[in-house]
Design goal:
It is a single chain. This protein has eleven helices and no strands. By secondary structure, the protein is mainly alpha-helical. The protein is elongated, with a radius of gyration of 23 Å. It starts with a helix and ends in a 5-residue tail after the last helix.
């Protein structure tokens, strides 16, 4: 067998596995991979400094020198969007991580122990959900300032929607035969939760995590658009939209491209979450 034939045999299983994946899953993964590369290595893709003013290039239309044009301070729009990817994904991912850790823990404990513990956690979640999030976020930001840690804390602690989803999964898992068998042989409660309940409820948590990142990206952009998000001169998609609203007729590219970045990135996370649900949920097969 020639070396080419050996290589072809070795790569065939991966090709078959890749071909079986849903196309939306591949598309969403590709969008997120590109976004992550831009967020982690922005300097590799930016020939200009996104913070430096260039008064000789004010609001220039897209050209070879500036592919996506410049803003009202002469800064390259494409470079600022690339650096804004780090802000959007960084805040969105960290806030979602807090959502999953805090909300997932509450849902796991409430669903497993039920009774008074579950009732107390659910009442706490109802109180949190009854407060308008935007009003609460604006209050916290006005007291502590609109810094990145404040945004992460606000989005992470008060976005506890995953708790109810994990609770519903745990309520069904805890009644399975293998859980009853583990209790019958005297397995410790902590071991049952960690070894049996959590692994069988983690699929729903992963799906909700993926979609929550997109939601948090929109919220961060909205707060920045209102002037309560990331402060200039740090590039932020929402702040770029807010800045561009008075130049919509004379410099359309200042608003169109940030909006497209938000739409495409959130779309990638949403279709990835939907595809993961189709792959990981055996009830949909």
């Amino acid at each position: 067998m020639t070396q080419t034939a050996k290589l072809r045999v070795r790569t065939r299983p991966f090709g078959l596995w890749l071909a079986r994946l849903p196309r939306p899953l591949i598309a969403g993964g590709l969008i997120i991979t590109i976004s992550l590369m831009l967020a982690v290595f922005p300097s590799l893709f930016t020939p200009y400094d996104p913070l430096t003013f260039d008064y000789n290039a004010l609001m220039q239309a897209p050209s070879w020198a500036h592919a996506w044009g410049t803003d009202n301070f002469g800064r390259d729009v494409l470079d600022r969007l690339i650096f804004g990817t780090r802000v959007a994904l960084g805040i969105g991912a960290m806030a979602t991580l807090l959502n999953m850790l805090f909300g997932g823990f509450l849902g796991l404990i409430g669903g497993f122990f039920r009774g008074a513990t579950d009732a107390s956690i659910m009442r706490f979640l109802e109180i949190i959900n009854s407060i308008p999030f935007l009003v609460l976020a604006l209050l916290i930001i006005s007291l502590w300032g609109s810094s990145i840690p404040t945004l992460i804390f606000t989005l992470g602690i008060f976005g506890l929607g995953p708790a109810r989803i994990i609770r519903s999964e745990v309520l069904s898992v805890r009644e399975e035969d293998y859980i009853l068998a583990a209790r019958a042989i005297g397995a410790p409660t902590g071991r049952i939760i960690v070894r049996h309940v959590l692994p069988n409820a983690i699929a729903s948590l992963l799906i909700v995590t993926t979609m929550s990142i997109g939601v948090n990206i929109i919220v961060v952009a909205g707060l920045s658009f209102l002037g309560f998000g990331v402060r200039p001169p740090i590039p932020s998609w929402g702040a770029m939209l807010q800045q561009a609203q008075e130049f919509m007729r004379s410099a359309w590219w200042m608003a169109v491209y940030p909006g497209l970045c938000i739409i495409i990135t959130v779309f990638g996370f949403n279709i990835l979450g939907d595809s993961l649900r189709d792959v990981l949920d055996p009830r949909l097969k």
